[in-house]
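Form 7-S
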Amino acid sequence: METPLTGRRLWQVASAIRQRVLVLRNRRYVDLQCEMQNVISDLQDFGRVQRNLELCLNHGWWAAANSVADQAARLTRAVPFSCQQIERAVNARIPLIPSIREVLAELQETEEEFSELRYYPENNCLAVVTEAIELENVYLGEFEVQLHIDRIGIPQDRAAYRVVALDAHPAARNDQVTHPHVSEERLCAGDAGAAIESAMVSGRIGDLFVLVRSVLTTYNAQSAYVPLGDWQGSACHDCGSTIGGDETYYCSSCDEDYCSDCTSCCTLCEESTCLGCLSTCPVCEDRFCPSCMVKCPDCGQRICRTCLTESKCSCHEEEPAKEEEDHDDDASSARGAAEVAGAGHIGAGEAT
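Output:
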């Protein structure tokens, strides 16, 4: 829930921001201590390798000595790297520690710049709202830029600040992209990224919000998650490509929009139907929409209405063949009876 930033609350927020900057400065010394400990560990390993090598030489263990020498070579490569890390930690820029009054003044200036400064105590989050943004005639709406104070300066956490669309007009192909440079509420700041990071770790909150707003009001097609040229329209439900209104084909069978490559026409009713909803009639082998495919009442096979009306189902073709076979059997039986009767007459004549 949003809380007004006035009086004591404003002072508490300024104090929390200053405390985070102070933590960042102290972390520099912690990093330095860790790198120095790494060098000490490497030197201790050198001592162990030296003792092992001396033991091998005393006993004439030449194969083992070769393995120990390889260990020494690896340590020789590791030590310079550890020393470089110490130098990096020593030369790292030390954040200036602003006073609480300076941070307080920064917050007040931010409120004047954006007309409103919001605070969400449950997340310890500061936020400002931009004006409605429109880039190259594409309306994107207002955005809330949120800064989570507890996450300031955590390098592995890119979520210290987020950009939330208040009146979302996302890209047609991806509803998580609410701005060409914002995906899943995270900003691709490009060249402004370093300046935003510097403002954040120095407690210059007003500069941070202004820099983020500047990125939001600028369009760079080279770094866009979705180019503005592909922003409007709808996405094909099958392949995901962006399609304009004149290029959209509606499939009434599944109630979705498709591009021309993912649709075809039903052979019978000629309705536009997506390829996934079209079925092939096993009799005529043409493609039909679900409404034009029916079950044969005799065998249950799904065929097109035309083939059913013309009795072309394969089960209908088997019946004449069976009738002809039965007729042939009857004729054979009749011939057999006649032959038997003829043989009887012949036998009677011979007896006479």
